[in-house]
């Protein structure tokens, strides 16, 4: 790692491996930096990053029993990003019969506009009754920053119960409430005793963690502590928890082939569906970035087995995922029959797609584990991928099981990625990254990067439905989406001819996207 001699932190390896234990006794979740050693700055090959990860080393990687730290490039400023509170908004705020209270200035709720649209679309795609999200802001102001906002929070809880009769109320903290030190726990306990429903503080102050994925963990931590049924009377042996966001229902048909039922969590679930997670036979996820904390805690605290297998992308990942799920649930024969039928159905379709996609170069810019899966699918359908931007990197997931090493699975089955970058969605860096790869298209899930790509004449495929590329049919779906996006190449070329970028020529000529980080060190 000589290339990272400047601008990085490194911590010493420990000689023995100790299994991580998640702590549900405290009301605040440990950040990903504390637990996993999450980083947001790195540049090199995928294989180099995999070598740095705890999965490859086979030990706990340094930092005692918790975080696994790899070499990190630290930039001198942030042009724009997302915070943990926003991830709480898009999870706790999307539970159908609950209310989210944001104990924050009103500006922290600006993201609810787009989240409401996503929520309504997600409900429609699942065939569920379409409704608006239900959230209340305490609207902290200058006076509250001096005298405290606890009374405002208590009143907001009362209003939430009177207006909506929810089954639970979630409280999202903010940088402002964290700075003034409001005793949110006491307010929540008092309200819970008064109203007789769970009142759940979610500690997600934006300054606590440098990556927004800690917000997923904060929501899941609160649900595990106060909603999941502690002593279930029964085990539903055909019920599988599926940790997801808003995507279409692709899991029910897949799992139905094995005689299994789906319990979708957290987004668009009801409080009862969250409570019954402890009754399920197993837990799966479409992305280990999203599901690592909840699935591991369900296994640790409630005995609900986590499926430890590659993510279900491409033939290799989907085959392994189905076989492990079948082994855990005792449905091996059904799984093998389904795998054989899907291979026979999908392979002729892919044979038709591959000649049309031959010679194309793609670029993936998404969350980390999701990106690993998408790159595998692209290479499965014959698209060249020699560059990717992932928004953070977890050197290990909470299960610590190497079968969930999504980056290692990608390299082992589909080869290395020459330009593999970790960065938290900085536009100025994204320009340099695209310039050195010059892809024909990019795949994104966070639309803020699409305009910059368009200014460079590069079409973007926004995967608003995160299940679009999942499983066997997902390979066909993604191939067809690429061909559809490339129909509009001339439009993007015209945009590139007529617009300019807001950067100095010195930066436009820069080859190293982390030049400022190295200079600052």
Tell me what you see in this structure.
The two termini are 16 Å apart. The chain has a six-stranded mixed sheet with strand order 1-12-11-10-13-14, sandwiched between helices. It contains 23 helices and 14 strands. Strand 2, helix 5 and strand 3 form a beta-alpha-beta unit. By secondary structure, the chain is of the alpha/beta class. Helix 15 packs parallel to helix 20.
Question: What integer is the average pLDDT?
Answer: 91
> SS-based structural class?
alpha/beta
What share of the residues does DSSP label as strand, in percent?
Answer: 5-15%
**Record field, number of beta strands:** 14
The helix count comes to 23
N- to C-terminal separation?
16 Å
Q: Sheet with the most strands?
A: 6 strands, mixed
What characteristic shape results from the CA principal axes? globular
Rg: 23 Å
